Amino acid sequence: MVNCLLINMDTFPTIFPPGGDSGLTNSQSELQKMLIDERVRCAHHKTNYQTLKAEHTRLQDEYIKSQHELKRLLKEKQTHQEKFQLLLEELRGELVEKTKDLEEVKLQVLTPQKLEVLRAQIQQELETPMRERFRNLDEEVEKYRTEYNKLRYEHTFLKSEFEHQKEEFARILEEEKIKYESEIASLEKDKEELHNQQLKVDPGKDSKRIEQLVREKLHLSQKLKSLEAEVAELRAEKENSGAQVENVQRTQVRQLAEMQATVRSLEAEKQSAKLQAERLEKELQSSSEQNTVLISKLHKAEREVNTLTSEVSHLNICFIL
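That's the Centrosomal protein 83 sequence above. Prediction below.
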């Protein structure tokens, strides 16, 4: 519309005639000035209009961009709020789990007072029976040692007695043997003399002497048989005594072996009880170390719970803002 006015005003000089009086010329000059001024103002307004239009377009574009940026920021804010909400729920769940774990660890952890009570209880339950058992084992070992020494002394005494009786029997047997051999030699000599005398003398004159010698021979034969029976009896007694001594020796050896086995068994049982006591002491020490580890875990869990609590509080503040 402004352009149309400018075009129409440009046609004004052609309407008026070029000649005329001075008044008309002055009017035309003023009119020309007015038209020029109007053209300048129109050009200025046109420039301002173009500038305002460009600025308006730029502002509209910036407004649209701002609207899009605002929508994006709102969407990001909603997304962050949802993430914060999920993170908050997750941290709350972890806090609940850590709290439960902390309570469980607190239940598992032994305080120094509980540990001392448990140590005293275990010591009372184990030490008293062990001491009683050790005392009984020592008494049994001492008893078997005394019996062993007694049997050993009896064995030595019986062995020396057996050797003495054996030597005595051998001496008596040798003496009896020498005695019997001398008597047999004497009888053989008498027999030989009687035989020689019988050959030299008349049998009818010395019949009484022969009968007497026969009676003496019978008596000596009976005495010889009696002595042989006595020797056989002594030999039987010797063999019986030897068998008894051997039986006693075997019995004593068996009893000694049984006592030695019993002593070894008691020593092994004592050693086993000692090892068991050492093992229980190690288990108690291991339990104490585990208790220390649980206490450190408890402190660590408490620190984690405090950290999670502070994080949850911080997230709650951020969520509120």
